Amino acid sequence: MTASLSRRIVSILARSGSFHGIDVPLLASVIALVLIGLNMVYSASFVMARNSPEFGSDTHFLTRQAVWAGVGLVGLVVAASIDYRWLRPLAAPALAVVVVLLLAVIGSTLGRSAYGAQRWLAIGGLPSIQPSELAKLALVVFYAAWLSARGEKLKQFRSGPLPFALVLVLVAGLVMAQPDFGSGFVVVAIAASMFFVAGARMIHLLGGVAVGSVALLLFAMSAGYRVARITAFLNPGADPFGANWHATQAAIALGSGGAFGRGLGASRQK
Q1: Residue 19 DSSP code
Q2: Which of 60, 150, 159, 269 could form a disulfide with 154 if both were Cys (CB 3.0 to 4.6 A apart)?
Q3: DSSP per-residue letters across 87-139
Q4: Segments forming the whole domain that contains residue 140
Q5: Which of 19-23, 91-95, 145-149, 170-174 has the lowest mean pLDDT?
Q6: What are 114's strand-pairing partners?
Q7: 59 and 92, same domain (yes or no)
Q8: Would residue 193 count as lying in a domain?
Q9: What's the mean pLDDT when you consider all of the chain?
Q10: pLDDT tens by residue, 24-83
């Protein structure tokens, strides 16, 4: 039912083209992904939620996730209503604040550790925040403002790729120092995509990709648990009850459900 509703919304909004300057196909895609995600949350969690006295209802996790999805959609509407030009003067200060927060996570008593990583920041009685998530948004806004102001200077190494790379190394380096390899990789991927779309010279882009790939590989190989994950990825048939447990279960789920699944709530793997 949810999948059918999402397809209908996508179809209606996509035909509309645009509405008050909003990219309707993009908005439709976001809404569809949110609905599909809620569908997946319910399908994967309702058995445990129903059988646990702690939760008492098979919709416990779905309801909680739907509330936050609603909050996110409200934030989306508010953000879409703001003239993006207002963000230009805030781009550099916002990035500077994020850098300070990232430093505070790994270099002060405000940082909170969990599962071998220090990624959260707790200030007084306020809710904890994860600065690496703020870094993604701040970096997008900063690079958007900076790249649009570069013009043809972007093609010159000293005024384009060099300062671009220095900012990226600073932000991505602080994120990976937590350590948070996943978020660090996303930060690098976002930056590389924006650099390409802005019209950078291909030689600079390829050079950056080569250097970045080597750096990411060296970082990935610097910790035993990351090496184990890479080894498991390269050899998915080995150790199905250990390092490859999740990949094995995912393969079983895909095999039993096929291309279109077994239906809401009827999946074999939860």
Answers
A1: E
A2: 150
A3: GGGGHHHHHHHHHHHHHHHHHSTTEEEETTEEEEE--TTSPPB-HHHHHHHHH
A4: 86-222
A5: 19-23
A6: 117
A7: no
A8: yes
A9: 79
A10: 788 888 889 999 899 888 888 887 888 777 777 788 888 889 999 989 888 888 887 788
129 and 62 both lie in a single domain: no
Which residues does 66 contact at the CB level (< 8 Å), separation at least 6? 38
Task: Classify residue 233: in a domain, yes or no.
Answer: no
pTM of the model: 0.70
The two structure tokens encoding residue 178 = 């937590």
As a whole number of angstroms, the distance between CA 193 and CA 204 comes to 13
Cβ neighbors of 154 (< 8 A, separation 6 or more) are 147, 160, 198, 199, 200
pLDDT tens per residue, range 191-248: 989 988 888 888 888 888 888 888 878 877 777 777 777 777 777 777 777 777 877 8
Both tokens assigned to 90: 């805030």
In a domain, 217, yes or no: yes
pLDDT of residue 139: 92
Contact at 8 Å (CB) between 150 and 201? no
Contact 47, 270 (CB under 8 A): yes
Q: Please tell me whether residue 73 adopts helix, strand or coil conformation.
A: helix
Using CA atoms, how far apart are residues 184 and 102, in angstroms rounded to an integer?
12
**In a shared domain, residues 105 and 207:** yes
> Which residue has tokens 């882009």?
205
Q: What is the helix (H) or strand (E) element at residue 23, kind and residue range?
A: strand 22-23
Tokens of 133: 């998530």
For residue range 152-163, list pLDDT tens digits in order. 888 888 888 888
Distance of CA 254 to the CA centre of its chain: 24
2 and 31 in contact (C-beta within 8 Å)? Answer: no
86 beta partners: none
Distance CA 218, CA 257 (A): 38
Helix (H, G, I), strand (E, B) or coil at 221: coil
